[in-house]
Design brief:
Helix content is about 75%, strand content about 0%. With about 90 residues, the chain is mainly alpha-helical.
Length: about 90
């Protein structure tokens, strides 16, 4: 069984950290912007949408990093004979 490329955990966390911190700021803004007495109804949908976007971005980032790691694990392919002949 071949080893599979993995996401570098710390690199992934570092790549996502700024996005997470920005999201948390937006959550605080949504709650603060809600009308007093209607904090939940005034912010819940916005917060849900923010976290849905982050969930998608986090998954896409992880998948992209794993694909990049897999591509990096393969050595460059040798140029074909046709390509070598064209450059001569």
């Amino acid at each position: 069984m071949e080893p599979t490329a993995k996401v570098a955990r710390e690199a992934y966390i570092q790549a996502m950290r700024q996005r997470v911190e920005a999201l948390l700021g937006k959550v605080a803004d949504a709650v603060n912007d809600a009308v007093p007495g209607q904090i939940i109804t005034g912010s819940e949908e916005k917060v849900r949408d923010l976290f849905a976007d982050l969930r998608r971005e986090a998954f896409e980032q992880a998948v992209q990093m794993r694909m990049d790691a897999a591509e990096a694990a393969f050595p460059p392919s040798a140029r074909s004979r046709d390509a070598q002949e064209q450059t001569q």
